[in-house]
Amino acid sequence: MSEVYASRRTRLRERCNASGSATALISRPANVRYLAGAAPHGAVLLLGGREDLLVCAGPLDDRPHEGRPDESLRVHHLRATGGDPAVAAAGLAAGEGGDSLAVEEHHLTVARHRELRAVAPGLRLADLGGAVEQLRVVKDEEEISCLRIGAEIADQALGELLESILVGRTERHLALELERRLVDHGADGPAFPTSVATGPNAGLRGHRPTDRRVEEGDFLSVCLGAGYRGYRCEIGRTFVIGTSPADWQIELYDLVFAAQRAGREALAPGVACRDVDRAARQIMSSAGHSEGLSALTGHGVGLEIEEDPQLTPAAMGKLDACVPVTVEPGVHLPGRGGVRIDDTLVVRPEADGGPELLTITTKELLAL
């Protein structure tokens, strides 16, 4: 992996040089991990004029399952406890005699930005913007492999839950059980707080589990994800509890299923992000569900659970190959519940078989 990390830093350095900065300070944790491998909490990366440094407040974590930093990087430990690695890195950059330092202003607080200026008054602080996030959009096959394993873990955890008795258990209890199963199957942990929603709560995006108990005839919607070696995927499914679905439940489910399928089939290199959103949204709007739809149909995933690209009506840009995204339309009827179906896929050209589905738990409307 050292060569991969070095290549990523080289690409970033080229962008910095093109904008007039010879050095850069990376402080956003996901970006540090992308460029330097797994690092201790709070570590920052300094792309220096002479060498690159990983600046840490404490010792390296002894957690091999989470990975290790790039072995080719020199690690600089702060001598005093309680110091800020970003401020220390700015001081090191000033000592190299450069005239500018690119920083991630969108991640720095105002107070932290002032501290950088104070420790390096001779450096012009330039905004790096989202340069690293842009590099992260297209994944290499090693990254996709981590997402694929994470998806398998999430599928396993969800599949086991479906085989258990659900009636009478609370949303909160089911969410905790799913998160335990994720870890049991090898996940670093949940990729995000697990959502379990029953009855009138079903279908709500990002619903926080409550003490409501699962009842016969409920819709049950579940959204979970596994983190694996830092990479995060997600899956969402909706089921009916304990009985044959009612006609209105079948109709609503079939509608969301059709919308989700249209969104998945629209994924291809060169397709506008807004067109993927439109493919799914039009189906639900034409059925009279234009009100209350989610602001997005999907989003990128990777080292963070919500990355670029965004699949929204106003999204700019087009999809590239090897970009993992979610497709997650949903409909919620106030007081009755609703349906969400959510998959993680990788954009692939038609010659390679089209979009690669990572989350494979059945999308059939099951009565559990």
What's the helix and strand layout?
Elements: H1 2-18, E1 24-26, H2 29-36, E2 44-47, E3 52-56, E4 74-77, H3 85-95, E5 100-103, H4 110-119, E6 124-127, H5 131-136, H6 141-162, H7 171-184, E7 189-190, E8 195-198, E9 219-224, E10 226-228, E11 231-232, E12 235-240, H8 247-265, H9 273-286, E13 298-300, E14 307-311, E15 324-327, E16 330-333, E17 337-340, E18 343-346, E19 356-357
Parallel strand pairs: 1-5, 3-4, 5-6
Antiparallel strand pairs: 1-2, 2-3, 7-10, 8-9, 9-12, 10-11, 13-14, 15-18, 16-17, 18-19
Helix pairs in contact: 3-4, 6-7, 8-9
- Envelope shape: elongated
Portion of residues in beta strands equals: 15-25%
Question: Taking all residues together, what is the mean pLDDT?
Answer: 94
Q: What structural class is derived from the secondary structure elements?
A: alpha+beta
Radius of gyration: 23 Å
